[in-house]
Amino acid sequence: MYKKFFCKVNCFIALFIFLMIVQGCVRNGKTGTATGKKSYRTDVPYLVVLSMDGFRWDYPAIYHTPNLDSIAATGVKAQELVPCFPSKTFPNHYSLATGLYPEHHGIVQNSFYDPVLGKYTLSDRKAVKNPEFYFGEPIWVTAEKQSVRSACFYWPGSEAPIKGVYPDIYKQYDGSVSFEARIDTVIAWLGRPAGERPHLIMWYFDEPDHTGHEYGPESEQTKEVVEHLDSLAGVFCRKINQLSIADSVNLVFTSDHGMQAISPERAIALDKLLKDRWVNLVGGANPVLMIDPNAGCTDSIMSVLKNVKHVKVYTKSSMPESLHYSDSNRIFDIVCVADSAWSIYWKASHFSTGGNHGYDPSNRNMHAIFYATGPAFLKNYVSAPFQNIHIYPLFARILGLIPAATDGSLTPTADMLRENVRE
Ligand code: AMP
Ligand code: ZN
Ligand code: ZN
Hints:
Layout: H1 2-28, E1 31-33, E2 46-52, H2 59-62, H3 66-74, E3 76-78, E4 81-82, H4 89-98, H5 102-105, E5 112-114, E6 118-120, H6 125-128, H7 139-145, E7 150-153, E8 169-171, H8 179-190, E9 200-205, H9 209-215, H10 220-241, E10 249-254, E11 260-262, E12 267-269, E13 279-285, E14 288-293, H11 298-305, E15 311-315, E16 334-338, E17 343-345, E18 354-356, E19 370-373, E20 381-383, E21 386-387, H12 391-399, H13 411-414, H14 419-422
Parallel strand pairs: 2-9, 2-10, 3-20, 4-21, 7-9, 12-17
Antiparallel strand pairs: 1-8, 3-19, 5-6, 10-19, 11-18, 13-14, 14-16, 15-16
Helix pairs in contact: 8-10
Adenosine monophosphate (AMP) is lined by residues 53, 88-89, 110, 122, 128, 154, 156, 173, 175, 206, 209-210.
């Protein structure tokens, strides 16, 4: 009898462990999916948004990009897409998704300190998945809340249940997955039966950022990778055109920021200029460093740094309005910004060559691309430059969603829409 009882207990424990593993795979493994009993709308258009990291606004002018050119001819392009400050990857992808400035959505740098939650960095998976770091409402959460199925393939922020909501499909970041495999996955999602396919897809390539950093924006290597990405955009469009739903798919090709050539001859280290006892913490990354001063030391630090050439230094109270970068307790009291093409480091261990971004968005080399085609967009229309905070309201309009409150508005982007979508 004892044997039978223990056998039953063992079976129960095994079943419990199995269920925990399945749950763990869904929530913590490579792919998450919230698909369950939820019923989704099928009467909304499709919107598929690809971000190619660090794709500078003028790459199509200086390199050969026939596929992006033909997207502009059948649809729209912005002359330039203006990022938020700092023009780094996570702050700007999350601005694209929420329509908020980084000071309001909370992702103020790729790595920063929160006084309560501690450190956020891209390499800390636990932090990246912690919803408490993310404020605002990303468009996939707006979609899910209004019964529009969404999918994200590495979009920054999509691995966390923001406001308690995941995209219906999301993936744990793995930069080694090929771009071709990502294309095939997105096409497979759109090839699912009606009612099962996502209507909003946000996906991501980590190029030409990597190559731009290593070799600089105006290099043979960056040219090659930009032209390869353009050919992949062409492959993707052709695969979309073979789908039964092709006519109702809107495609957007955009980016988070541009790229600026830098040189070790234009680099400054700050640590030797300041006394250790003045500084509590240093955060951010070249070309934007943030200093948390020890009590009473702000004036000492400022009096030294304001005389350093090629660096602008601000306290929260002297921050230029245009940067929208003071309304957060994750922004330290002192912010140092290198002038365009210059680099600042805390310690002089190494000075990078190649390219960088993060600069004040008034530097045009920080500007990114916005190309779009599909039933919501005009044909062969070129829009004036606009800021990326205005993209969330545009996406909400295309999908027929009631938007959350943002720092942006539909006004600067509405001119790209066909009249029936605009109104
Ligand atoms: P940066 O150029 O410093 O602004 O950072 C860009 C880098 O962030 C990319 O090259 C990727 O390697 C990395 N990255 C992009 N998305 C993610 C993600 N979801 N999780 C972790 N790292 C990411
Ligand atoms: Zn980036
Ligand atoms: Zn980068």
